[in-house]
Q: What sequence folds into this?
């Protein structure tokens, strides 16, 4: 199983980014996919999870109302749409499959004016 994140970059406060996590290789069919982030000097923080069949987004309070998680089952991609970004959202964002204990390499998000 391989996870490849993309979509990070530099954005001004209030801007938006859509992160992608492309999943390849064998994995459980109904896999849970999670996003975490890591900022300098801080502990790793859970951001959001997508579980097949969930009716509502499962996102952290720190990003609730600004972040949505979705998946394209045809392409096997999980997206993290982030709106109204704040400087405190600056971090490396990682995709993780708990069922396979597999991490991606991360994608850097920098929010700065």
A:
């Amino acid at each position: 199983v391989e996870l490849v994140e993309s979509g990070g970059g530099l954005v001004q406060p209030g801007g938006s980014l859509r992160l992608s996590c492309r999943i390849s290789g064998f994995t459980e069919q109904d896999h849970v996919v999670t996003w975490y982030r890591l900022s300098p000097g801080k502990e790793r923080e859970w951001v959001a999870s997508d579980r097949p069949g969930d009716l509502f987004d499962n996102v952290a309070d720190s990003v609730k109302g600004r972040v949505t998680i979705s998946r394209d089952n045809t392409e096997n991609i999980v997206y993290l749409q982030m709106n109204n970004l704040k400087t405190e959202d600056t971090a490396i964002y990682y995709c993780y499959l708990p069922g396979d204990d597999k991490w991606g390499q991360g994608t850097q998000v920098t929010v700065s004016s």
Remarks:
- The two ends are 37 Å apart (CA to CA).
- The first strand starts at residue 2 and ends at 6.
- The mean pLDDT is 92.
- DSSP finds no helices and eleven strands in the chain.
